[in-house]
Structure formats: C-alpha cells, structure tokens
Amino acid sequence: MSAFPPATTPATFYFDLVSPFAYLMWKQLRRNATLALRPEPVLLGGLLQHWGQLGPAEVPPKRIQIYRMCQWLADRYGIPFRFPDVHPFRSIEALRLLVALDARIDAVDALFDAVFRDGLDLGDPANLEAFGRALGLDRVAAVLAAPTVKDRLRANTEAAIARGVFGVPTVEVGAELFWGFDTIGMIDDYLANPALFRAPAMARLEGLGYGVPRRTNG
C-alpha cells in the first residue's frame, strides 16, 4: 500500500525539451504525489516569437549565469544533471516524437533524461530514431514528418499562447499559471490554499499601473 495519497489535482505541464529548467521542474513535480501531471509539449521559439522575447541563451552574459544556476539547482536538489555538449539545440523533432507518442509520461521521462541526465544530442536523427523505436514507434522519420504530427505541435503551442503561456516551464493548476522552477513552492501554497491569489495584497497586483514604456528602435 502506497504511503502517499493518490494524485488527485490535475496539472498541465507546458515544456520544451530544450529547457534545462523544464527538466529540473519536471523532476521535482514528479516527486509531488498529489499532482496528476499532463505533459504538453510546446515550441519555446513559438512562444518567444509571439510575445517578442529573446531566448534565455540569446543574451551571452545571461547564458552562462543560467547554466550555472541549473547546475547549482541540480546539485542542491539531488537531481542527476549533465548539459549536452551543444545547447541550445534543435528540439522540434524530439517534440514531434513526444506528440506522436501522445506525450506519455514514460516518453517524457526518457527524453528529458537523455538530454539533461545523459547529455545526449536529441538533434541527432540517429538518436531520435533509436528512442522512437525503443518507445514503440515504427518508421520514426516518417512519423516525425507527418503533417498531422506537425499540426498537433503547432496547435499545442497556439493553445498555450491563448492561455497566456509565455515561457517554459509553465504549470497550469486550476485557472492559474505558474512559470519557472522557482514557483514550485508557490504551487504547493496554492494547493494548500486555493484562495491564495484572492488575498488583498495579491489581488492588488493585477491593478498596478504601467509607468515607463520600453523604448523601441524606429
């Protein structure tokens, strides 16, 4: 008999396999026995393009800071971790593989572990072919090129944008979105107190004015 209560709270996990923070958050959330996780692969590039943002690794001084933070978090929380030799890498085919596998939990585990535990290059077609076959797919290359698979990944990304998702990892619990590894504690508090964001100090934040618009070239 399990010592933990059954997973009863649905939670959608929006992620791109290129994100080390998504890997770390996935590992931590998998330890939360109360969450019934539904992985939703999305294209980080599509989110960034829609909202007009640079990727975290596109700002050179920020890149090394992020990589150090990820390694530190992994060490601190006891999560096996190794960056692949090239990062960021092209993740779209690996995401299509997950879509073709209906984003099964075991498939998400396997591909995240391949990238950030074992440091493998999932941009390599040979690696994708091997993982696809191991996870039960035949004719992997044809599956990844199928318009229906491409359309599903695009639809996932568009639906996430419509929900207000702007980055990964993002977790949707109830009507609330939680962005980033550092919101894990906030998720725990929200699960314990669903009225968390209706408290006066929290509710006030939604009405704050915007005083200094950012200048753009042109």
Describe what this molecule looks like in 3D.
- This protein is an alpha+beta fold and 218 residues long.
- It has one domain (9-207): Glutaredoxin (3-Layer(aba) Sandwich).
- It has helices spanning 20-30, 44-51, 60-77, 92-100, 105-116, 125-134, 140-145, 147-163, 184-192, 200-204; strands at residues 9-15, 35-41, 170-173, 176-179.
Give a summary of the structure in a few sentences.
The chain has 10 helices and 4 strands. With 218 residues, the protein is α+β, with helices and mostly antiparallel strands.
What structural keywords apply?
alpha+beta
Report how far apart the termini are. Answer: 65 Å
What is the count of helical runs? 10
> Which homologous superfamily in CATH is the superfamily?
Glutaredoxin
Please count the beta strands (DSSP E, at least 2 residues each).
4
Structural class by helix and strand composition? alpha+beta
Largest beta sheet: what is the strand line-up? 2-1-3-4
Helix share, percent: 40-55%
CATH architecture: 3-Layer(aba) Sandwich
Domain module tally? 1
Draw up the topology in text.
Elements: E1 9-15, H1 20-30, E2 35-41, H2 44-51, H3 60-77, H4 92-100, H5 105-116, H6 125-134, H7 140-145, H8 147-163, E3 170-173, E4 176-179, H9 184-192, H10 200-204
